[in-house]
Design a protein that fits this description.
The complex is a heterodimer of chains A (112) and B (114).
Chain A lengths: L2 E4 L4 E4 L4 E3 L1 E4 L4 E8 L5 E7 L5 E4 L2 E4 L9 E3 L8 E9 L6 E2 L3 E6 L1
Parallel strand pairs in A: 2-12
Antiparallel strand pairs in A: 1-4, 3-9, 5-6, 5-10, 7-8, 8-9, 10-11, 10-12
Chain B lengths: L4 E3 L2 E4 L5 E6 L6 E8 L3 E9 L2 E5 L6 E5 L5 E5 L8 E8 L9 E2 L3 E5 L1
Parallel strand pairs in B: 2-11
Antiparallel strand pairs in B: 1-3, 3-8, 4-5, 4-9, 5-6, 7-8, 9-10, 9-11
Classes of the chains: A mainly beta (112), B mainly beta (114).
Chain lengths: 112, 114
């Protein structure tokens, strides 16, 4: 079945460090890919998305490129801030009427 | 523009009781989905409603049910509560357009079953 695998956390970085969170997927169709972020005590917020191969989603300094050949959608940020500390979820959806399938989440802690 | 509103935010129940959670979607959104989030299982899809009809359903027992009203507001109900039902229940709404179906989530209802 369709699934998302993302790197286990927690990930601890110093402020201004480079961030990569790996995400790979398995899908029977042509998925759209998403990164959601969850801050403590809150729901999920859409961080970025990509709907087709080679699309690059970007927002707030975060980027991810939809790589069909490697079935990957890795999240990157060049310089993290303490305020980026949160749990990050990679997810996919097939078509316009499917449900979101999430990875397990990766907790990021950024130290000053 | 108001976001997705879920009520109540927190609630405590005892085993065997039942609970109803409410979700008001973003104005104009006709699709409402529910997800359960637990530390062990992560985020799991419960069901999705569109125009008052259940369109998709996840792999949960029949104790979990939902409905959607004509104004797109949705409720989910869990009967005969078990300890394992303790979780954050997240509601999401979407405005379906061609291409990616982008879900906007509410803050969640945190249920504790004692």
């Amino acid at each position: 079945g369709d699934s998302v695998t993302q790197m286990e956390g927690p990930v601890t970085l110093s402020e201004e460090a480079f961030l990569t969170i790996n995400c790979t997927y398995t899908a029977t169709g042509y998925p759209s890919l998403f990164w959601y972020v969850q801050y403590p005590g809150e729901g999920l917020q859409l961080l970025l998305k990509a709907t087709k191969a080679d699309d690059k989603g970007s927002n707030k300094g975060f980027e991810a490129t939809y790589r069909k050949e490697t079935t990957s959608f890795h999240l990157e940020k060049g310089s993290v801030q303490v305020s980026d500390s949160a749990v990050y979820f990679c997810a996919l959806i097939i078509g316009s009427q499917g449900n979101l399938i999430f990875g397990k989440g990766t907790k990021l802690s950024v130290k000053p | 523009k108001a976001g997705v509103t879920q009520t109540p935010r927190y609630l405590i129940k005892t085993r065997g009781q039942q609970v109803t959670l409410s979700c008001s979607p973003i104005s104009g959104h006709r699709s409402v989905s529910w997800y359960q989030q637990t530390p062990g299982q992560g985020l799991q899809f419960l069901f999705e409603y569109f125009s008052e009809t259940q369109r998709n359903k996840g792999n949960f027992p029949g104790r979990f049910s939902g409905r959607q009203f004509s104004n797109s507001r949705s409720e989910m109900n869990v009967s005969t509560l078990e300890l394992g039902d303790s979780a954050l229940y997240l509601c999401a709404s979407s405005l379906e357009v061609s291409g990616a179906n982008v879900l906007t989530f509410g803050a969640g209802s945190r249920l504790t079953v004692l």
